[in-house]
Amino acid sequence: MLAFPVLDREPGVLGRRLAALPGEGHPVWMYLCGIVLSLAAIAALSIIAGLLVTRVLLHAHGVAYDDQAFEGFLARHRSTGLTDASLVGSIMAGGVVLPIVAGVSALVAAALRHWRLACFLLLALAVESASYRATTLVIHRHRPTVPRLEHLPVNASYPSGHMAASIAIYCGLALLLTSRLTNRSAQVGVWAIALLVPVFVAFSRLYRGMHHPLDVAGGALVGIAALSALVLVSRAANLATTRARR
Known about the structure:
By secondary structure, this protein is an all-alpha fold. The protein has a single domain, classed as Vanadium-containing Chloroperoxidase, domain 1 (Up-down Bundle), CATH 1.20.144. It has helices at 13-19, 27-55, 63-76, 80-92, 97-111, 115-138, 161-178, 184-207, 213-244. Helix 2 (27-55) runs parallel beside helix 6 (115-138), helix 5 packs parallel to helix 7 (161-178) and helix 7 packs antiparallel against helix 8 (184-207). The two termini are 35 Å apart.
């Protein structure tokens, strides 16, 4: 039977090593150290992936053409309905909606005195956003040569920040919910919606001419890495807290 990921689970080898970092110190220091290490690792991973894409993969036979051709196909088949839908998809993963989602989640968790949960989505978004910004400082790729439906910096195509943030927040929210839900149908429903949202966001960003397919793939890498890192750090923090109370 398919098992959905849960937050409160015994960490693996890496998580146990991370939990041992504070020694006799407070587990909060371990948590903060884990966040900093995660940010550094994900930013490095994203930059390396960006260099591989822009300096190696795009110079392979036909890859750059196909990456651009898909954008041309979408631009030629735009319609009023799809344009409106793509705006919704972009707003859902934009810089206004996602902080609100993360903030509301944090407030609810704080009201219930679940402090690790209160930090979870906020820090997932922070790690994702900082890794994305670091990548754009190093990787410069021009956006698709099609009529673009938004006015953003032309040379900031890689990676897709909207894609990365949608995975970090919506899949992170699904993980928090299904860690507490026991009904199997509810778990399936929550994850189905959570996985469909990034797909919708990816289509929206491609449709609006803001990214190439490889840029969206790069964004997915950052989002998955950020979410995975927060799960690891949270599990390690839980283990460190348990040890400190003994």
